[in-house]
Design goal:
Distance between the termini: 17 Å
Number of strands: 12
CATH architecture: Alpha-Beta Complex
Helix content: 25-40%
CATH topology: Nucleoside Triphosphate Pyrophosphohydrolase
Number of domains: 1
Number of helices: 5
CATH superfamily: Nucleoside Triphosphate Pyrophosphohydrolase
Order of helices and strands: EEEHEEEEEEHEEHEHH
Low-confidence stretches: 1-6
Largest sheet: 6 strands, mixed
Radius of gyration: 18 Å
Structural class: alpha+beta
Shape: globular
């Protein structure tokens, strides 16, 4: 069973995933049309949004103390517009993120840029899970690779999938499921230098970086000083890390 932690986030201590693809749920014509209207309005408000491929979570089950069974579905980002359609049900999102420690025992947290779907939110580096090509399986090794790619793209840190370890799974807002990987500790100057290079490279291409700032925290209490919204999983993950679990 998961730990139940405030504010309503479940945190699973997991060593292995069992991943099974499921069929996408059918939508009524009215819900489909309403979904599209909500999505189009959101894109008008933020043209940076795009309807790319994504993975949603159909079911989550603990098979035993260390194995979590995840049933997943191919969707696109507009699927989550169903959250704003009365009477409709949106499947929870599935995402990867990374705990990046520094060698003095602190943990990196990052603030999302204004052009993202969650402007100003403090969270871990990461992103939505992307589906494999049609007919191929979603595998745990591939998920670690996606987490490593997010770390490289957002922070400029090239840890590599083989260096990341599945460390925890969270279930929180809208039932969204986060697969959290632990990266090797690095010196603070190396982390900050890599982030500066990565963000400068994005701006040189006239693109706004996905992350606008990073900071290091040593306890959940440090999060209180970070102005703006926080991802709901952030405090439980920071607490788990700083408690040395």
């Amino acid at each position: 069973m998961p730990e139940t932690l405030p504010p309503g986030v479940d945190l699973f201590d997991v060593e292995r995933l069992q991943l099974t693809e499921a069929a996408a749920p059918c939508l009524s014509p009215s819900h489909e049309a309403a979904r599209d209207r909500v999505w189009e309005k959101a894109v008008q408000a933020n043209p940076a949004l795009f309807d790319g491929p994504a993975v949603a979570c159909a079911e989550l089950q603990h098979r035993d103390l260390r194995v979590l069974s995840v049933s997943w579905v191919r969707v696109t980002y507009r699927h989550y517009a169903l959250r704003r359609v009365p009477g409709a049900t949106a499947l929870p999102s599935l995402f990867v993120n990374v705990v990046q420690p520094t060698d003095d025992g602190r943990l990196l947290v990052a603030r999302m840029s204004s052009s993202t779907a969650a402007p100003g939110r403090w969270q871990l580096p990461g992103g939505s899970v992307e589906p494999p090509p049609d007919g191929e399986r979603l595998e745990e090794r591939g998920l670690a690779g996606q987490a490593a790619r997010e770390l490289a793209e957002e922070l400029g840190l090239d840890a590599g999938a083989e260096a990341l370890r599945l460390w925890a799974v969270t279930r929180g807002e809208n039932g969204s499921v986060g697969l959290t990987y632990l990266a090797p500790a690095l010196p603070e100057p190396a982390v900050r230098a890599a982030f500066a290079v990565a963000t400068a490279a994005e701006r040189a291409q006239d693109r706004e970086p996905e992350l606008e700032a990073i900071t290091l925290v040593s306890s959940p209490q440090d999060l209180a000083g970070l102005a703006g919204p926080h991802a709901d999983y952030l405090e439980p993950i920071v607490r788990r890390f700083t408690d040395g679990r």
